[in-house]
Specification:
The complex is a heterodimer of chains A (179) and B (401).
Chain A (H helix, E strand, L loop, with lengths): L1 H13 L9 H27 L16 H13 L3 H8 L2 H86 L1
Chain B lengths: L1 E5 L10 H13 L4 E7 L14 E5 L2 E6 L7 H13 L4 H11 L4 H7 L8 E5 L4 H9 L4 E4 L11 H8 L3 E4 L2 H11 L6 E3 L12 H8 L5 E5 L8 H15 L4 E5 L12 E3 L5 H10 L2 E4 L8 H8 L4 E4 L3 H10 L2 E4 L2 H13 L1 H18 L2 H25 L4
Parallel strand pairs in B: 1-2, 1-5, 2-4, 5-6, 6-7, 7-8, 9-10, 9-12, 10-11, 12-13, 13-14
Antiparallel strand pairs in B: 3-4
Helix pairs in contact in B: 2-3, 4-5, 6-7, 8-10, 11-14
The chains are: A mainly alpha (179), B alpha/beta (401).
């Protein structure tokens, strides 16, 4: 019960709510702002923890150094340029790198394949457009041919009629010349 | 006045969706009109296989005519066709084939509409996406009223539905968002429509203690009522709830009521009780702190109305426009789009008793103003009266022979 009261007191400091006339939109705005702030804080905390911390100071700096340690430090100083190589040999960092490179390579290949597909699709689209234009032109040509065909048919009919008329005239003239 | 309700399935065993909506409306409107229901013999909504005997029967005082489904749906073939249609270019004939494959294929019902058009004053069709509505509205357009029960579903963008949405005489919408979506898609603003929804009745006698004793539940709990299904956003609900518990250490439990088609995580604080009798459901809701409603697709959400009727706040999925709109209009619940918002909103609701009570009060007021049966019946009567008025004006204005 006390916990709840504490929680309510804490929330009343964060949220401004009119309990007599609840405004859901206003509450949701506050909830969203708080969620965004929280997400930002989480992200920062995550980023901080993910970053490598500062190098620790040598623990034994305050203590007097023995001969062994002095020799060890000298050797270490001498080998400092080779530390990266030693680390590489001691820890399997390269394996992770190799894995990452392999994954990147695979992703790259997939992207290439996708790009090829997109290209192919674009080509198909262009072909479809061309086919569409071709069909359109074919329809137009066929329509023209049909019109021409109709005109020729009419002309033939006219010629046939002329021919009949001339035949009749010829026969009439023949009959007249014979009489 | 005689009104025929046409719906894909109709039975006492169907406990949700447009079918239950239709049954409740038909039973309530029987007080005002001579009501009849035309439906199919199907029970299973996946295959529409004939299950009930054909012919006539009476269910809760409402006469029902059942028509046989000519061919059950082949889910695999339908799925392939739907995927193809939704994926790319297709012809109008493909959409009609999709409609036939979707079913329920009841040509005998459609064939009966035209000869009987004079016998009824209006035909009220439920669910826009099925065969009976598409062909039914075309058969009797001037006497048809469509209750689309539409959600943000990809199939609503099919061309055949644009045509359908312009044909009925009137619409009865479930929500403002549904009306806006349909008007935006089809430009059917000229077709009269009224946002109505459906009423709910809550049991007057409820006991949270009885529910706790019967199911051995202790402590605070949230409740989800409905099918445990991916389409209902339950996978997100489980994920968010478990993350919330892990991060905050909250002892709150989650009670699930309804059939499950999704595996439920094994966790001591998630209790799945299956399908419960109405009394137990209302007892459970009475004892809950709030109702979780993670669904992406809703055309109304009756269970949300039931929660508000009981004065319970709701935490709903804001990606569902209807739920978001209902929460804003009712001032009865908060919403979430992602986990960060879920955590904040649920944390706030759990910690603030006064806020829960205030949201519950607002929700209850919204329910009383809009979703009691008196209000719903009044709206149905208003739509039909408006059409009658139009008919009278037309008959006066039409030239006499």
């Amino acid at each position: 019960m006390e916990d709840k009261e504490k929680g309510e007191r804490r929330l009343s400091g964060i949220y401004k709510i009119d309990y007599e006339a609840v405004d859901v939109e206003a509450i949701m705005d506050q909830v969203r702002q708080k969620a965004a702030r929280q997400a930002g804080q989480d992200g920062e905390a995550g980023a901080e923890s993910a970053e490598p911390g500062p190098a620790a100071p040598p623990a034994a700096a305050a203590e007097p150094l023995g001969l062994k340690k002095k020799i060890k430090m000298k050797v270490q100083r001498f080998l400092t340029p080779f530390f990266p190589l030693q680390r590489l040999l001691a820890f399997p960092v390269h394996e992770d790198l190799m894995k990452a490179v392999a994954q990147l390579h695979q992703t790259d290949q997939r992207l290439d394949r996708l790009q090829a597909k997109v290209h192919e699709r674009n080509l198909t689209q262009e072909y479809v457009k061309l086919l569409h234009i071709l069909c359109h032109n074919l329809v137009a040509e066929l329509t023209k041919l049909r019109v021409e065909h109709e005109a020729l048919k009419l002309k033939t009919q006219v010629l046939e009629k002329d021919f009949e008329h001339l035949g009749r005239r010829e026969r009439a003239l023949e009959r007249r010349s014979q009489s | 006045m005689k009104v025929v309700f046409v719906v894909q399935r109709y039975s006492l065993e169907i406990s949700g969706g447009a079918e239950l909506h239709c049954r409740w409306v038909a039973e309530h409107m029987a007080k005002h009109w001579e009501v009849e229901v035309w439906t199919t013999r199907a029970f299973d909504y996946i295959t529409w296989r004939n299950h009930y005997p054909g012919g006539r029967e009476v269910i809760n005082g409402v006469p029902v005519r059942r028509y046989p489904v000519r061919r059950p749906r082949d889910p695999a073939r339908f799925g392939r066709l739907q995927a193809r249609i939704l994926a790319g270019e297709h012809k109008a004939a493909d959409e009609l084939r999709w409609l036939e494959e979707e079913g329920p294929l009841v040509p005998s019902l459609i064939a009966d509409l035209r000869p009987n058009r004079a016998a009824a004053d209006y035909f009220i069709f439920f669910s826009y996406r099925y065969y009976h509505s598409y062909w039914g509205v075309r058969a009797v357009p001037d006497k048809s009223i469509l209750v689309p029960t539409a959600e943000h579903d990809p199939v609503i963008h099919l061309r055949l539905f644009k045509d359908l949405f312009r044909r009925p005489r009137a619409f009865i919408y479930n929500s403002v968002e549904e009306r806006d979506m349909i008007q935006g898609l089809s430009g059917n603003r000229a077709v009269p429509g009224l946002v109505t929804g459906v009423g709910t009745e809550v049991l007057a006698e409820r006991s949270a203690e009885r529910f706790r004793r019967a199911y051995g539940l202790e402590g605070d709990y949230l409740i989800y009522i409905g099918r445990v299904d991916q389409n209902k956003g339950c996978h997100k609900m489980f994920d968010y709830f478990l993350r919330f518990k892990q991060e905050t250490g909250s002892p709150v439990k989650l009670v699930l009521i309804g059939g499950a088609v999704l595996p439920i995580p094994r966790h001591p604080d998630i209790r799945h009780l299956g399908i419960l009798p109405e009394q137990d459901k209302f007892d459970a809701l009475e004892g809950a702190l709030l109702l979780l409603m993670p669904s992406f697709y809703e055309s109304l959400s009756m269970v949300t109305l039931e929660a508000w009727a009981l004065g319970k706040p709701v935490l709903a999925n804001a990606l569902c426009e209807v739920l978001r709109g209902q929460c804003r209009r009712s001032r009865g619940g908060l919403e979430f789009r992602d986990y960060a918002e879920f955590r904040e909103a649920l944390g706030l609701l759990l910690a603030d008793d006064r806020l829960r009570q205030a949201l519950g009060r607002s929700g209850a007021g919204y329910y009383r103003e809009n979703y009691t049966w008196e209000v719903i019946e009044g709206k149905y009567l208003a739509v039909v009266n408006q059409l009658q008025e139009e008919n009278r004006c037309r008959s006066i204005n039409s030239p006499r022979p």
